[in-house]
Known about the structure:
Keywords: Membrane, Transmembrane, Transmembrane helix, Transport. The chain has helices at residues 21-55, 60-63, 65-88, 90-109, 114-132, 135-142, 148-176, 181-184, 186-200, 213-234, 239-259, 276-306, 311-336, 341-360, 368-395, 402-430, 435-456. The protein is mainly alpha-helical and 465 residues long. It has three domains: 15-207, Up-down Bundle (Growth Hormone, Chain: A), CATH 1.20.1250; 213-262; 265-465, MFS general substrate transporter like domains (Growth Hormone, Chain: A, Up-down Bundle), CATH 1.20.1250.
Amino acid sequence: MGGQRADANPNEVVTDGGLPPAARNRAxxxxxxxxxxxxxxxxxxxxxxxxxxxxxxxxxxxxxWIVNIYxxxxxxxxxxxxxLAEIVSYRxxxxxxxxxxxxxxxxxxxxxxxxxxxxxxxxxxVGAAAVMGINTALLREIYPRHMLGRGLGTNAxxxxxxxxxxxxxxxxxxxxxxxxxxxxxxxxxxxxxxxxACKALPQTARAGHKLDALTAxxxxxxxxxxILTIGEGxxxxxxxxxxxxACGALIFFVLLLRRQAGHHAPMLPVDLFRLPQFSLSxxxxxxxxxxxxxxxxxxxxxFEAVLGRSAVETGFLLTPWAxxxxxxxxxxxxxxxxxxxxxLGGVGTxxxxxxxxxxxxxxxxxxxxxxxxRMAVCGIGFGFxxxxxxxxxxxxxxxxxxxxASGVVATSRLIGQxxxxxxxxxxxxxxxxxxxxxxxxxxxxxxxAASVTSFARMxxxxxxx
Length: 465
C-alpha cells in the first residue's frame, strides 16, 4: 500500500492507498473545512442556547431541542450514510453533506420561530452526519498507510480547535450581531468547502451491492429512539414514556439485525464487532467520550454556580482542555504509526481519569491557574487517546468496509457524548447541590473503564489492512 504516482489525477480511483503530496493537501483541506464546520456548529449552539431561547421566547426546556435535534439527526443517519458511501463513493456523500449542511445553515439563519429553527437544525444535523460519518474513511484513502496516524491526528486537531474557538466565537457574534449570524457565518465557508471538495477529493472503489431502504429506515428509527430514551430517562420522564421509547428502539434494532442477517456488508456492522480489536476500540471510544460529555456539560455549572465565574470566564477556563487535545493529537497520531495503540490509548485515558479526579479535589477557592493546569491534564490524556483509537478502528476493518468502520467511529463518539450529557442531567436530578461532583465522579469511572478496555487490546490479535 504505497503512494500514487506523482502525476496522478486526484479524481482517479485510489487503488494504492494515498494521493501525491500536493493533491493530498488540497483534499485534506476540504475534509478539514467540513469537519470544522460540523464541530464548530455544535460548540456555538451549546454556548448561545440561552440567547437563542430568549430571542425566540422559548422556555429553557423547549430550547434544548435546538441542540438535541441536531445530535439526534446525526446519530440516526450516520450508519445509513456510511453504508451508502461504500456504494456511491465517499466523495459523493461528503459533497452532498456539505451542500445540505450549508443550505440548512441558511434556513437556520432565516428561522422565525423555535419550530422552524428546530426543523432546520434537523436537516443541518443530517448534513453533518454525511460529513462526519465518512470523513475518517476518506482520510484512509487520502493518506498512505504509513501516514494514516498522522492524518488522523491532524483531523483530531481540527476538531479540538473548532471546539476551543466555539465559545469565544459565539460570544463575539452575539456581542456584535444577533443569533441568526451564528448560522449565516457558515455560508461562505460552506461554499468554499464544496468547491474544494469537488476539485480535490478522490474517487474511491464502490461496493457492488445496493442500499436497502428498509434497512436504512430501521437503523434511523432504532438509533433515534435510543437517543430519545437516554435523554428522557436522564430527565426522569414518565416511566411509560421511557418504556415505550425503549421498547420501540429494541423492536427496530431486532428488525434491523434480522433484515441485514447474512448480508456481506451490513449497515450496522455487527460482523466487524466479531473482530476483538475493532470491538474493544469502539467500546473504548464510547467510554472515553462519555467521560468527556460528563465533564464538558457539568464543568460550566461548576465554574459559574460554585466558583462564581462569569460565562465569559467559563469559556476561557474550558479552553486549556481543547488546546491540549490539539497539541497532543498530532503527536499521538505519529506515535500510533510506530507503537501499539492499546498502550497509547490506555495511558491517555488513565491520564484523563487522573485529571478528572484532580478536578473533583480542587480547592474550594481555586485560582485560575489551579483550574487551568487540571484542565490541561485532562486535555493531554484525551488527546493522547483520540488519534490512536481512530487508527485502531480503521486498521482492524477490511479496506472494503471503510465506510462502515468510519460510521462506527462517529456513532461511538456521539453515543458516548449523548450518554455523558444525559447522565449529567440525571446527577443534577439526584442532587442539585452535588450534581457536578457526581457527574465528574462518573467521568472518572468511565475514563478508568476506557483505560482497561484499551490495555485489553494488547492481548488480542490486531487485523491490519
